[in-house]
Each structure stands twice: as structure tokens, then as C-alpha cells.
């Protein structure tokens, strides 16, 4: 007989994905609701119907996120973006201009991500570094810096793709098509970018590298360990 019940072996931790580090899909899904409401309201009630539907939906999403404990600044920025998009459409009198802010935002994001890679501050590394509270320690790991640079190109491509799809539809004033593609190129595209960029980062790291949570840095003259300590 054994001295007691066998202890269960602890389950091995599941490898982290980029989605685990950067958060879930809730924010991306929430972001699609006001544009969808705008498209539906526009079909049923014209420009003002779309504007009213988008603003009310944006306010409802903001209230829901507030009650869920999201950061106030994040909630207010999301609601402000909806209000600004609605104001642009009202001022121009063109329903398709509701999506103009989104087009400009994606164009600026594509440029920012590309520049960040060129100057060796890839935004993927910045975002993950902030999420892991590493500050800039990851930049002292040449392999990780290179991996984040390659992964950042995936995100740059997503913004370029959105601009390439949105601009012709906006020029033609195709509100329904803009609404559908706005939804299709939000969470589904983000999910694909999360998976693809994480694969790129993982495969870019040399064998034996401990991964993004533990950047490998050169030991200092005082003999500190090569792996940057995690706080």
C-alpha cells in the first residue's frame, strides 16, 4: 500500500499566444457595432437615421464597457470617435463620409507601423513590452528585436489592406458595402493578424530562446544574469 493518495501532476501551462498578451476580442467586436448600426439606420432612415443609430449604439457600448470596468479614457475615446465620424457625415451631407475617419486612421496606422520598423522600435514589441511591463528591455535582445520587426510587418499589411479596400468604396459612396467590409475587416482580420504575427515572432526566434516574457540581454560587467528579470 502506498503511504497516501497519489498527487496529481500539475498540468503543463498552455503556451501564451499574442491574443493572451494583448487582450481578447471584446474591444474589436464593440468597435464594429456603431458602424453596423449606422449602415442599418441609413438604410431605414437616411443620413440622420444612420447618425442617430450610430451615436446611440456608441453610447450604449460605452456604458456597457464602463460598467465592465474598462478604463475611462478608453471608453471615452471610443465614444468620441463615433461622435466625430457622425459629425463629419452631417457636415458634408454624405453618408459614406462616416467612414472617412476610419480610413484616415488606418492610413496613419500603416505609416506609423512601417516607420517604427525602420527606426528599430517595432510597435509590436512596444505593445507587448507594455503588456508585459518590460519597458524597453526587449530591445536589448537582438533576436527578439528582429522577431518583433518581422511580426510588425503583418500588422502593417492589415492597415494597408483596409485602406486599399475602403477607399474605392468610399469614393463610390457605397455605404452598405463599407458597413459590411468594416465589420469583416475588424475582428476577423485582427484575429488573423494575431495568429500570423505570433507565428512569425515564434519562428524568428532561435532554438532555445525563452520567448517574449524573458528577453535575453548581454550580461553587464557586474555579472548580472543574461535573462532580464521579470517584475
Question: Which tags fit this structure?
Answer:
231 residues; mainly alpha; transmembrane; membrane; DUF3159 domain-containing protein; transmembrane helix
Give an overview in words:
With 231 residues, this protein is mainly α. The chain has one domain. The chain has eight helices and no strands. It has helices at residues 18-22, 26-67, 72-92, 100-118, 123-131, 142-171, 175-184, 187-204. The N and C termini lie far apart (45 Å). Mean pLDDT is 84; it is low at 4-17 and 220-225.
Describe the structure concisely for a colleague.
This protein has 231 residues and is mostly helical.
Taking the sheet with the most strands, its summary is: none
What is the helix content? 55-70%
* Total tally of structural domains: 1
Given as residue ranges, the uncertain stretches (5+ residues, pLDDT < 50) are 4-17, 220-225
3D shape? elongated
Number of strands: 0
Radius of gyration: 22 Å
Structural category is: mainly alpha
Number of helices: 8
Let me know the average pLDDT: 84
Beta-strand residue percentage:
under 5%
Instruction: Output the helix-strand order.
Output: HHHHHHHH
Distance between the termini: 45 Å
Pfam families: DUF3159
Transmembrane segments: 40-62, 74-90, 110-132, 153-171, 183-201
Keywords: Membrane, Transmembrane, Transmembrane helix
InterPro entries: UCP010219
Amino acid at each position: 500500500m502506498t503511504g497516501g493518495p497519489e498527487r496529481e501532476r500539475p498540468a503543463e501551462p498552455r503556451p501564451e499566444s499574442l491574443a493572451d498578451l494583448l487582450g481578447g476580442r471584446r474591444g474589436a467586436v464593440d468597435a464594429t457595432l456603431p458602424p453596423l448600426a449606422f449602415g442599418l439606420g441609413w438604410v431605414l432612415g437616411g443620413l440622420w437615421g444612420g447618425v442617430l443609430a450610430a451615436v446611440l449604439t456608441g453610447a450604449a457600448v460605452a456604458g456597457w464597457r464602463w460598467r465592465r470596468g474598462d478604463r475611462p479614457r478608453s471608453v471615452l475615446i471610443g465614444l468620441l470617435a463615433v461622435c466625430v465620424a457622425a459629425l463629419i457625415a452631417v457636415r458634408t451631407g454624405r453618408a459614406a463620409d462616416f467612414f472617412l475617419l476610419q480610413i484616415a486612421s488606418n492610413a496613419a496606422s500603416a505609416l506609423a507601423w512601417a516607420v517604427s520598423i525602420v527606426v528599430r522600435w517595432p510597435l509590436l514589441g512596444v505593445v507587448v513590452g507594455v503588456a508585459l511591463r518590460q519597458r524597453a528591455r526587449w530591445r536589448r535582445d537582438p533576436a527578439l528585436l528582429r522577431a518583433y520587426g518581422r511580426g510588425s510587418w503583418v500588422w502593417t499589411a492589415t492597415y494597408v489592406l483596409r485602406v486599399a479596400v475602403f477607399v474605392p468604396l468610399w469614393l463610390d459612396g457605397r455605404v452598405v458595402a463599407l458597413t459590411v467590409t468594416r465589420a469583416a475587416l475588424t475582428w476577423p482580420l485582427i484575429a488573423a493578424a494575431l495568429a500570423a504575427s505570433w507565428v512569425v515572432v515564434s519562428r524568428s526566434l532561435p532554438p532555445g530562446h525563452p520567448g517574449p516574457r524573458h528577453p535575453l540581454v548581454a550580461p553587464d560587467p557586474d555579472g548580472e544574469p543574461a535573462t532580464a528579470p521579470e517584475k
